[in-house]
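Budget justification, computational time. The allocation requested in the original proposal was used primarily to generate structure tokens for proteins on the priority list. As evidence of use, we reproduce two of the resulting records. The first is shown immediately below.
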Amino acid sequence: MSDHIRLALKGALLLGVVFFVYGFAQFKQNKRSYEKEIIIVDSVSVLSKDIVDKLLIQKLDHSENDNKLKVDLRVIEELLLTHTLISNAQVYKTIDGKLVTEVKQRFPLALVQSDEDFYLDEMGVRIEKNDFKSIALKADLNNLPVIVGKFGPENYVELMDLLKSIQDDGFFASKIKLLKKRQDGFYELELRNSNLIIELGNNSNINQKLKKFKAFFAKAKHDQILDDFIRINLAFDNQVVCTKRI
């Protein structure tokens, strides 16, 4: 056998080994693609990993073809986002072929009382009450601020922006009992453990209005006359208008 033929055979054999190793690696990669890791970002879970896993399986089962996983990760993310309790989802594959899914949950921040009660999350997205099955979680939901009044879906974002602005103030963070939008478009606020009705007017200059109320509250509490008042109007510039109880 000539040196040229021997060299050609060695080259062919080496090429065959390379293709075998590559094919085996691809086979293992495709098998590993079925390994899934689900991460729920938030510390308090309103969404079980089983629910996320079932949503993934729906897509993965339709992505299998000749033992090769062909998955459009963006499509999987879009599928996950169709679930009511998922506000954000990121899906990616690690270098070793694992499919990792990171999910951010949608939490209710307020209860809307109307003909059919429901929750709103921080983005003003509606969440149905029956989406929450956990008894432990329902105990926390009982302490949510309540929103009532004259408004429609087009006002949900505005309502939540206002509520978050109030809650961001440390004084009001856990004190809000009720937020009401009146028929004239103005807002009223009620605090826990208080019989005061706070008239905010419109949703402009909220921080300034809250500052005025805190100054009034501190003075009235110091003078022990807080219970003398039933209504505090913050709608006017540079003044607080108080209505005494009869």
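The second record produced under the same allocation is shown here.
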Amino acid sequence: SEKVHSRPQAERGGKSKEMCKKYAESVYIILPDPIGSGTFKYDTCAVVEPLITNGKDAEAREYPHMALIGYGNKNSISWLCGGSLISERYILSAAHCTDSGS
């Protein structure tokens, strides 16, 4: 009789765990301890790095499908998000643009 070989079962959630670990490693850097007692992990997650280099301002109406999303009132507006016009009534933006944090 012919042997039946089954495919090895991957651990459930294994890829997620692998990628999470890989990401976690990328946000920490190892630095020498300031008092000379070894090394420590420095979390770079909250360190702001400029994402645009040598960029230039867009001209008015250069990207007519883009939207600038501001917060506040007409006397004090903070322009913090952007989006894409997907119809006459809707703008597609990232979830954090509308999350009030509550």
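A brief technical remark on that second record: Helices lie at 14-27.
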